[in-house]
């Protein structure tokens, strides 16, 4: 039987870290010049951020 930390706290921390990385990487994609980024660059950045955070934090 898993400890309460493994059942409640660890998944919440993983969700918090994943969401923070997702937002941080997505915002960095348009940090240089918001008008010059277009639509493809933020979309690719968010997609890659989602793939990376899912791969890194998927086992938690």
From TrEMBL:
Q: Which Pfam families match?
A: MIP
Q: Output this protein's name.
A: AQP8 protein
Q: What is the lineage of its organism?
A: Eukaryota, Metazoa, Chordata, Craniata, Vertebrata
Q: Where in the cell is it found?
A: Membrane
Name the residues that span the membrane.
12-31
Principal localization reads membrane
What keywords are annotated for this sequence in UniProt? Membrane, Transmembrane, Transmembrane helix
The record's listing under InterPro entries reads:
Aquaporin-like, MIP
Q: Which GO terms describe its cellular component?
A: membrane
What membrane topology does the UniProt entry give? Answer: Multi-pass membrane protein
Its encoding gene is what? Aqp8
> Molecular function (GO) terms listed?
channel activity
């Amino acid at each position: 039987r898993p400890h309460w930390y493994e059942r409640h706290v660890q998944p919440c921390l993983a969700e918090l870290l994943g969401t923070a990385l997702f937002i941080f990487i997505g915002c960095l994609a348009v940090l240089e010049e918001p008008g010059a980024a277009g639509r493809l660059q933020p979309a690719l950045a968010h997609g890659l951020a989602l793939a990376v955070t899912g791969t890194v934090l998927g086992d938690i």
